Amino acid sequence: MLTKLWRSVVGNGACRARHTLRAYNGTNKAAFSVASPDKVDVQIPVAVSPEVAKKHGFEVIKEEFVKEYGSNCVLYRHTGTGAELMSVHSADENKTFGAVFRTPVEDSTGVPHILEHSVLCGSRKYPIKEPFVELMKSSLNTFLNAFTYPDRTCYPVASCNTRDFYNLVDVYLDAVFYPRCAEKSNPENVKIFEQEGWHHELDSPDPSQLQYKGVVFNEMKGVYSSPDSVLGRVCQQALFPEITYGVDSGGDPRYITDLTYEQFCDFHSDFYHPSNTRFWFYGDDDPETRLEILSNYLKDFEANQAGVEKSRVLTQKKFTEPRTVTDYYAVSESEDPSQAGQQKAYVNVNWVLEDDVFDLETQLAFGFLDFILLGTSGSPLRKALIDSGLGEAVCGGGLEDELRQPTFSIGLKGVESSSEENLKKVETLVLETLESLAEKGFSDSSIEAALNTIEFSLRENNTGSFPRGLSLMLRSMQAWIYDKDPLEPLKWEDQLEGFKAKLKEQTPTKLFGDLIRKYLIDNPHRVTVNLLPNTALQAELDGEEQGKLDELRKGMTDEDMQELMRKTQELKTHQETPDPAEALKCIPTLDLADIPKESQEIPSSLRELTSGGEKVDILSHDIFTNDVVYAEFAFDMSSVPKHLLYLIPLFCRCLTEMGTTKEDFVELTERIGRKTGGLSAYSFTSALKDEDKPSAYIIVRGKSTKDKFGDYCEIVEDIIQNVELDNKERFKQMVLETIAGQEAAMVGRGHTYAIGRLHAQRDTASAAGEYMGGVANYHAMKGLAEKLDADWDQVHNDLKLLKNAIFKKKGMLVNLTADEKTLTSIDKDVAGFVDSLPDVGQAPSDQGSLLWYEGKDSGLLLPKQNELLVVPTQVNYVGKCTNMYKDTPYKQHGSSVVISKYLSTTWLWDRVRVVGGAYGGFCSFDNTSGHFSFMSYRDPNLSKTIDNYDGSTNFLKELTLDKDELTKSIIATMGDIDSYQLPDSKGYTAFMRHLLKVTDEERQQRRDEILSTKLQDFKDFGDALQSALEANSQVCAVTSKDMAKQAEEERKDLGFVTSQVL
Ligand SMILES: [Zn+2]
Questions:
Q1: Is 196 among the catalytic positions?
Q2: How far apart are CA 404 and CA 16, in angstroms?
Q3: If you measure from the C-alpha of residue 193 to the centroid of ligand 1, how many angstroms do you get, rounded to a whole number?
Q4: Ligand 1 centroid, distance to 192 Cα (angstroms)
Q5: Can 116 be counted among the known catalytic residues?
Q6: How far is it, in rounded angstroms, from Cα 707 to Cα 194?
Q7: What mean pLDDT, rounded, does the chain reach?
Q8: What pLDDT is stored for residue 199 in this prediction?
Q9: Exactly one of 116, 402, 670, 737 is catalytic; which is it?
Q10: What is the percent of the chain where pLDDT is above 90?
Q11: Domains contained in the chain, CATH given
Q12: What is the pairing mode between strands 1033-1039 and 877-883?
């Protein structure tokens, strides 16, 4: 329960393999989003009486008030089917529902994952192609997705609007219990399985064109291209060889094609049954309505005990001896001879900690141990690994306790793989470090820091944009899914007090030493995984797939080929034919009248603080934050010279991870942990509307309780004035970690790199961003790593220059979020902090190097060209970009938000995802800069995807849209704009609007325009987009070597510039 929490604070570690239905769409809605109103007079709904429950077919098993979340929780059992329901009554308006099934598997065909996708493709009451997409297009949801875990499948939805919420619940319930995909009586339904899972495709009479297609098939190819995911899977399978975790529930592309439609339907009838369901309701809606809704579905089922038995998750018997497993990940052959043989291994040491789920006490204690060992860059196990120089970055996420048996994993990536001896050193180091920590214990300050950090995070319960109700559901499920008490994981307060008392009584050295010995050092269920690079693996995998297709081809007659072509065409036609407008009306929706006309304002006041010869802007937001202060200090980047932009991200990391001249970085990290709820520094850049000058800031952001705010300011003052910049070795570690992180990101999130390149051809802010975080930054980091020893003096001087140039009162802005009384009480601390800064910074001698900040240095922009960036991958990320304001008369208008969302969820979803087989395809329009961008995610196609992008304009121009459809798309857009926000993000949103100079009047105008969007707006937008694309547009794709060659051939007209990046 703790690991997840501290990760959200520290932002660390990889998450367990979990496949989500919807890809991240990368759109930024901060500039226009509006907060929901603050609650006054909170009232928690009272649970229904047992008699009323009985009337609906439910009996109460347990009822309890959980003080940690101010919620009354009632656990019910449906007497007819045995289905369980946790009904959580709280004052939270962000209502959440979930249906969770236990879905263990015996093979790696990915059947639960394909089913997770498929059930949302039409059902009894909603007989259309994709009700899920219709909800995306028409509802006010604050969450809409589905997850496949190694042993369960979850269907969660959330909304703040009660009517909308119940609509979502009904579509989801009908989808899971009555999906068309598992309805064998209609042969048409197999198409859903083929589309979402896999099928043979043949487009032309040329048999060599025969291939496998399918959304999950392709999604998993993308997953299997990422070495970090490969590592996670190999470790899990090595730890649990005899149970369901020993195979891949997401699906291994090599075995997905073994799955038959018959097996798929059987899996549904076995596991998607009320007897095997755990339902979750959370929020401020009416308790009885929940029972009514469920009982309407459950009354038609009888208990299915056989399915329940079959769904039980077994445990892995503990090993008696530690093991070592060697496996491989694919890398491309380097064309640069100096790089040959440099490809590095992953070494990860893993344990299964317990025979079953941890008891609460151990879970809490181990959660603390995990944080103390690994939680910050100064934590001793993490630090020992990095300091050893054996690898480039830490891998393995420490404690994982979401599955039946908790595990612990830690290791290094970027390990020199030429000798086995060297690999062995990592394991030895991990074991020896644990041994010495068990012996010597931990410093008092590190334990105090861990206590404060974890307690702060539990009390703040800041789940970001994730609904709180969903976060609670997932936590509760860790016990509930294994037939244990669902409320236990939510009750941390007494456990925490007990733990603190035990710490005092036993001494931390004894308590943690015992845990380390019992669960790690003396635990024989340990597997060391060596994951080695293999340049032949990709060809082998491709060969294996081709071999299977060859085999099939051999057995096919000409008639078979014809038949397959016909079926391919039939599937495509089916996919491309929209549902009739009449059919779409089955999806319940709201009226425009349900949407408030006025945009909601976030309380903000701006004042000037005069200090020395400067005036500093103080922006503050009077919002109830439960005694926490959220504070941002923003420093403009006007005196950062162009040639040092590449150092900015490292410089920001130095601030919190290098220590100060007074304390080393371990002491500093601990002080941050003891006194604050987290602190970070990063850069922010954005184009401004109608200005060449970008908005560019270094932001120091953090939070603390009201009474520790003075300490927080003192820490910020310390790090910006006295940051230690002399530690070359530490700096080098950060450079190597940065490179390792970028390499993983380029393979896993290639679309963000592609789109970053395209924007960097267009505006100063994006070009600066490319040097600070894109492919250009990656090249700079590689160069820096090579010459760091020789050039350290220069680099060191550059870092000092940045420090003296950036931190100053001039151009500075302070943003504070807390209630008014708290804000008043911290005035003095804020003033003291501002006074401590110099009035103006030290500008570099070469004034020409600062012209970029004025938007006057066109040399910063990347050349306008079409690019292919080659990395080792089995899938593509295709970007295309143009600007709507530059070559067309198009003017900023609210309807553009509706139109780009509509385009993403219709044309692009259908062509790029459904027909094309990519995991995601979407577009975004940046209202500020005018950039219009298309992106695809884990895409099997490249040229075809570009054609589909170009086809958008005709789609818009020829669109017919009845009033209902138009209303739906407006409502869905308003759902994004009025998205639910926790207090800290309200304050932060207002701060972003201030930096981007977006006024409340302007927001109201956009809102009016959105609400009055007409069909003609779509057509006009299509015209303008077409002119813009024709006048000036570029493509950039992250792709493999082979696919790059093919694209160069197919699209000679684009004159691609190809470069191997990894
Ligand atoms: Zn998926």
A1: yes
A2: 13
A3: 13
A4: 14
A5: yes
A6: 59
A7: 92
A8: 96
A9: 116
A10: 83
A11: 323-467+475-534 (3.30.830.10), 605-836 (3.30.830.10), 867-1060 (3.30.830.10)
A12: antiparallel
